[in-house]
């Protein structure tokens, strides 16, 4: 799974960071690998999707806020990108249906074309298991 960033993010602090000087820059459109264990809904109804930098061994948290979902705008993340072999794993993430229904989860049709999972025919049998 990957997240695609919606804008440039400058000096993103990592979770283990004590001083804010240790941030990293990310580019709009950049895709970052993440795993299922680093995708979860927080008690405040926001979603946290974390990228683990293997080289530095630190975690960078990215967020999809409840406000973004409600008002359909994208501050940091365009969407979570999954491939068909990850569908089974995806539907095990608690409350993931909310992100799917708000068109925050997509599959890659080509290098530049994505289709949201809520309308992707090959995902329908998995989607029905979420209901």
List the helices and strands and how they pair.
Layout: E1 2-5, E2 9-12, E3 24-26, E4 31-33, E5 39-41, E6 47-53, E7 58-64, H1 66-71, E8 77-82, H2 87-90, H3 96-101, E9 105-108, E10 114-116, H4 124-130
What does this structure look like?
By secondary structure, the chain is an alpha+beta fold. The protein is built from four helices and ten strands, in the order E-E-E-E-E-E-E-H-E-H-H-E-E-H. A five-stranded mixed β-sheet has the order 4-1-8-9-10. A three-stranded antiparallel β-sheet has the order 5-6-7. It has a two-stranded antiparallel sheet with strand order 2-3. Strand 6 and strand 7 (58-64) form a beta hairpin. The longest helix is centred in the C-terminal third of the chain and has 7 residues, at 124-130. The chain is globular and about 45 Å long.
Defining traits:
single chain; 131 residues; alpha+beta; five-stranded mixed sheet; three-stranded antiparallel sheet; 34% strand
Count of separate DSSP helical elements = 4
Shape: globular
N-to-C span: 22 Å
**Neighbour order of strands in the largest sheet:** 4-1-8-9-10
Indicate the proportion of strand residues: 25-35%
Helix content estimate: 10-25%
Described by strand count, sense and barrel closure, the largest sheet is: 5 strands, mixed
Cα-atom radius of gyration? 15 Å
Order of SSEs, N→C? EEEEEEEHEHHEEH
Estimated structural class: alpha+beta
Name the quaternary structure: single chain
Q: What is the count of β-strands? A: 10
**Average pLDDT level:** 91
Unreliable segments of 5+ consecutive residues: none
């Amino acid at each position: 799974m990957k997240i695609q960033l919606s804008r440039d993010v400058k000096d993103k602090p990592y979770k283990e960071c004590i001083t804010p000087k240790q941030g990293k820059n990310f580019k709009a459109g950049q895709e970052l690998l993440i795993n299922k264990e680093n995708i979860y809904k927080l008690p405040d109804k926001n979603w946290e999707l974390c990228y683990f930098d293997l080289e530095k061994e630190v975690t960078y948290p990215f967020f999809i806020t409840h406000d973004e979902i409600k008002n359909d705008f994208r501050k940091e993340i365009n969407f979570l990108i999954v491939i068909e072999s990850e569908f089974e794993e995806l539907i095990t993430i608690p409350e993931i249906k909310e992100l799917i229904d708000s068109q925050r989860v997509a599959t890659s049709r080509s290098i530049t074309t994505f289709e949201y999972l809520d309308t992707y025919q090959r995902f329908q049998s998995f989607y029905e298991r979420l209901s």
